[in-house]
Amino acid sequence: MAWIILLIAGLLEIVWAFAMKKSDGFTVLMPSIVTIVTVLISFGMLAVAMKSLPLGTSYTIWTGIGAAGAFIAGAAFLGETLSPMRVLAAAMIIGGIILMRLASAE
């Protein structure tokens, strides 16, 4: 169950990062509210997952999902650049997430 909670926490990190971008420095109300609510839920779920998962594993996977997901969301919805180097970097982050999960005994 901790892994599912961690996955959802990571997906919510993508949501709050995207909403933060759309909030224009917290000057647009609705994206600002979405940012604050989802960051609190995401942090809370990360804390719950950390009760039974190691710190390094939990935090690495949580930030990795958020980083790779934000990169994908930025490219898909905000027209951000998809250079070969950026795609390779995102692929390496995703590879790191997979390796961290495989290396975990839980």
UniProtKB/TrEMBL annotation:
It is found in: Cell membrane. Pfam families: Multi_Drug_Res. Keywords: Cell membrane, Membrane, Transmembrane, Transmembrane helix, Transport. GO terms for cellular component: plasma membrane. The keyword Electron transport does not apply. One of its GO terms (biological process) is xenobiotic detoxification by transmembrane export across the plasma membrane. InterPro entries: EmrE-like, Small_drug/metabolite_transptr, Small_multidrug_res. The chain crosses the membrane at residues 27-49, 61-79, 85-103. The keyword Transmembrane helix applies. Signal peptide: none annotated. It is a multi-pass membrane protein. GO terms for molecular function: transmembrane transporter activity. Belongs to the drug/metabolite transporter (DMT) superfamily. Small multidrug resistance (SMR) (TC 2.A.7.1) family. Gdx/SugE subfamily. This is Guanidinium exporter. It comes from Pontibaca methylaminivorans.
